[in-house]
Amino acid sequence: MKTAVFVAPTIHEYSDPNNLLELARITEEAGWDGYFICDHLLLDPGGYLALADPTVTLAAVAAVTKKVIIGAMVTPVSRRRPWKLAKEFASLDQLSGGRLRIGIGLGGLDQEFSNFGEDPDKKVLARKTDEGITIMEQLHTGEVVNFDGEMYRIKDARLLPRPVQRPRIPVWVAAMLPAKPGQRRAARWDGIMPHVMPVALEETQDISDTDLRVIMSPSPEQIREVVDFTSALRDTDEPFDVIASGITCGLDKDETRGKLQSYQEAGATWWFEWLDCGRPGTLDQVRRQIQAGPPES
Known about the structure:
Helix content: 25-40%
Structural class: alpha/beta
Number of strands: 10
Shape: globular
Strand content: 15-25%
């Protein structure tokens, strides 16, 4: 099972791209396999929390690292033009030498759409997401693309150069448990990152002081259920990544080893160490945690 640093949310000190670049360099030096950030526009209803732009930041991360897998978990295709996103991802894959993973989700809070005059309805976002991923895959072939969908239309479009990775940049899809649509979507692509739906959370409430790492992390049993469900839907033997996320910081070595082994035995292929980025004043603590190296399973 591979290990990655997960910097989310990118608020407070983590809204400064320079800090995110420093953490990326430390991540690679300390022997982690991946470095991932989040993709949000607004986390608090008033928009007072600063957030780093993920695409610009990842471009810089790609330039200052050589080995770690990188990406944003997750990018809402539904609030981007898929052809512009396809171009961004192709350039990121080139800059990184083929180290990018595309994380896909329906979107974050309603305000990230409604505040900008866009429809936050989940059914609309789902249709935009499915069509958007398909469009990106087709555009990344480097061939002429024609697409006539419900949400998007493309005529005689070609985008070059292609990404480095073939046949495509791996696509990892977010899924909110216990719902099934995200799992069904993920089964058609290259991986899944399940989270647990925080049922007590209102869409419009300020979540800046909520430790989502605790309430959203799936259990090993839930990971096993996800693996069983998605495996039954897949019609290919190609590799399929299952990303478990959570916290090992503060556990002793035996507790850490036992925890990670339980996820690995359940079918997880990646462990994302979700850093304590939701509170101000944690940068030094997070820096030391990354420098200590990945947890051992």
